[in-house]
Amino acid sequence: MRVLLVEDDEPVAQSLRRGLVRYGFEVEWVSTGGAALSHEGPYDVVLLDLGLPDTDGLDVCKALRGRGDVPIIVISARSDETDRVVGLELGADDYVSKPFGVREVIARIRAVMRRAQPRGEVAAAGPDTYGSRLTIDRKAARVRLDGEEVSLAPKEYGLLSFLTEEPGALMSREQIMEAVWDANWFGPTKTLDVHVAALRRKLAGAVVIEAVRGVGFRLEIAEDDGVS
After folding, report:
1. What is the pLDDT of residues 80-131, one digit of tens each?
2. What CA–CA distance (Å, rounded) separates 31 from 35?
3. pTM: predicted TM-score of the whole model, two decimal places
4. CA–CA separation, 158 vs 187, rounded Å?
5. Residues 195, 220 contacting (CB under 8 angstroms)
6. Measured in Å, how far apart are the chain's first and last C-alpha atoms?
7. Which residue segments constitute the domains of the chain, with CATH numbers given?
8. What DSSP element (H or E) covers 207?
9. DSSP state of 81
10. How far apart are CA 205 and CA 6, in angstroms?
11. Is 112 in contact with 137 (CB distance < 8 Å)?
12. Residue 25 CB neighbour total at 10 angstroms
């Protein structure tokens, strides 16, 4: 997913950019409103700071919204309710106050991207399909293998849901523990290995969860063997 980050504070921008890239996002960073308005893209979502050096971020928000329907998330130190209301009225899809964590921003991005889909498209999409055998219904938190529901413990489901968001991407143990268990997780990650083993057993033949020594795990969708 391509992100246009509009932020004049370099330490904040670099930190957020690194965090997003770790989670598989492509990030283009500009530091002024003028650069944001002249950026040709393409991009899927805009993260927009309000305190820009050349123009008010609210004006940039209004101008970007006038050009199209690309989701806009305002990220700002302005926590005043008036700024929030004005930003949303000018076309922003969400508003995140500084300081914030990368995971919060990612959650907001995913939420606005889901809302941005046309209603008919959302209804038609239904459960997510992975290969010919596995489906995940994220609304109902249900997993089916060859049409039969698979019983998963809550953390097993959370782990599978996280890893299948970006099949093929290498996720570190820290990323996984933070996303599935707790943002403030400390200590050994042996429980992760136990849950990975359970998913391998329950979803054998549909997915392959590869362990990358010293780093983390990568989920791949198993190739269709052509057997009907």
Report:
1. 666 667 777 888 888 888 777 777 788 788 778 877 665 444 444 568 888 8
2. 7
3. 0.55
4. 20
5. no
6. 34
7. 2-119 (3.40.50.2300), 126-221 (1.10.10.10)
8. strand 207-212
9. H
10. 44
11. no
12. 20
